[in-house]
Amino acid sequence: MEFLIDKEEFARGLFRSQSVVEKKGTMPILLNVLIETKENGISITATDLEIGIKGFYPANIRQPGSITLAAKKLYEVVKELPEKEVFFRLKENQWVEISSGKSIFKIMGISAETFPSFPAYEEENFISLESALLREMIDKTIFAVSSDESRYNLTGVFCTRREKESEKILRMVATDGYRLSLIDRTMKMEIEGLENGILLPKKGLLELTRLLEEEGNEVWLKMKNNNFIFKKDPVVLIMRLLDAEFPDYHQVIPSQTKRFIRMKRSQILESLKRVSILSSEKTKGVKFHFAEDLLELSSYNPDFGEAKEEFSVDYQGEELTLGFNYRFIMEVLNILSSEEILFELEDGVSPAIIRPTDDSQHTCVVMPMRI
Questions:
Q1: What is the dotted CATH code of the domain comprising 253-366?
Q2: What are phi and psi of 135, to 5 degrees?
């Protein structure tokens, strides 16, 4: 196995694999990337058995073959090589020699035969979706995914489709039981397999957002068996769906509210940053007191003191006081695109709905807390 490849191209392919490979795996092979020669190039594959990523990179193939090497060390070596071209040669007993200019590295590999196989798929029936649209939907939901592995059915983003007046709507929802984010966007084509909804893993979606950041306006996707497949040349990303039932999220969203408060997103965000400094480190609670055309934020910490700040809002109604975990509110505010936002409240114990005023298809819900 021998090939000559551009250093930047090689490093780019290895970089894409870094966050997929297991950091502390029980299977040593999962710490490696699989490198295989193809016609006019090489493929680089990484997997943790739940997520797999495979990319093609142009190279001058002198002798075909395959090998697996430690993903982290190989990337560290390649990105520091002195010249633009890298020569890669597989020697005896799975040793690999990598040279560039006057630098020569010899690295021990593991036979490619032990590397898990990449799921097979057909090229037909992929549908296209705008990269920016998919990236927006992920960004506006993934923050609400639970990090508690004991609540397995909340550790992913629920993805389903719905129809509204002949429009094809893609919906993504995430919740951890304390906050929820739901977003709808119109699609040009339907994605088969979303009728009953699927649960996409957080790690897989984080990998996908990295690909969506790269150049290119489209991503191609399809369902096959229990896998969701994404293609964005020259990379294919496959993630295994979570085998769990997402809860009925409609029950979390209040069906009716009677208090509506309009405010500037930047104003409440900056105020929260200041007031939260003296909030309880354990509960992270901040008190919200709504009065006519006024919102007062306050916090108290028995070890340090208290903070209070008020500012003008658009509200006509009875006075109302609620407590919120300030981090939950700030995370919602940070992903909203509108400068003007709308708080919808029923009473002092029901969940609060937070929406951007210019996007009726995005809804966030935050549970209140006792302070």
A1: 3.10.150.10
A2: -60, -45
